[in-house]
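Figure-free illustration: sequence to structure, shown twice.
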Amino acid sequence: MTIEAWRITGQSQIDSYVGRWVELAVLLVNELSVAWAHGRPVEPPADPRAALEEAFTRQGRPPSRALTGADTDRLAHVAADLHAAFAGDVATLNETLVRHGAVPNLHGDPSVLAFHAPGADLVDAWAADAATALAMVIGVGQGRRLRSCEAEGCELVFMDVTRNASRRFCGLSCQNRAKASAYRARRRA
């Protein structure tokens, strides 16, 4: 199994394969499927393809080939489906696995484990691998680690890798906004 409790602390260890595809799921959702981030509405990019390629480059994951407009449109649908998985919607995740032909297999030289058919196009391959990684995290009882930011006005998602799975916010800016808001509410009361 790719995720197992570490023998001493009980902290879950996510292997690099699963972690890599969960990171892709987070990137797709945060770039293509959120309407609010850090308390502000997110304007859809004028050129979603260029924005997505820039996000991949920022994370050091440039695509193996240039994305087309059709790829970007299909990835937006995948991102919406994956976003539902972060909210605990396993039915939509299961539909995504089936729709994109997720099937474990070995291919390449040297052989690499993948969850898409060897001939799958880029979008189906990414969707199948990312959805499988999310399913693996959920399937071993660690679904609570797939989180959405709890700050008001933020829909960004993340994988909580803290020891006790207690992370609540996507980053410090949202954490600071939430704490400041709670402080002001206490002062008014």
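We now fold a second protein in the same way, so the two outputs can be compared directly.
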Amino acid sequence: MEEYKRTVLYVEDNQLNMALMHHIFKRNLPSILLLEAETAELGLSMAREVLPDLIILDIGLPGLNGYEALEILQQDEATCHIPVLGTSAFAQLSDIEKAKNRGFAAYITKPFQVKAFTETVKRLLDSGL
């Protein structure tokens, strides 16, 4: 059985993006356990239960969107310390600024540049935000 050093929760409703993320973690971040949730509601529940080291949160989720989920995470004493990496296909400068102003620790646009994404994940895990 593998021993993981860190845990990351990925909240994403698109199965292709989820499969890509599993591939990226297996190849580039093998010591990190990747957990998944298909909705913000499930992600919030898992975040409270597991207390991952990092949450990767899609902005365009059905139901609660990423901004609403981030606000709930920030207001919860159990999860407010967990850095959250926002992801979205929205790549305008205004989208990036909005995400940073709302409190995301970082924001990566889709499609991902794998090297930049991997470096961002490592930086957020190492920063201990």
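Summary for the second example: The first helix runs from residue 15 to 28.
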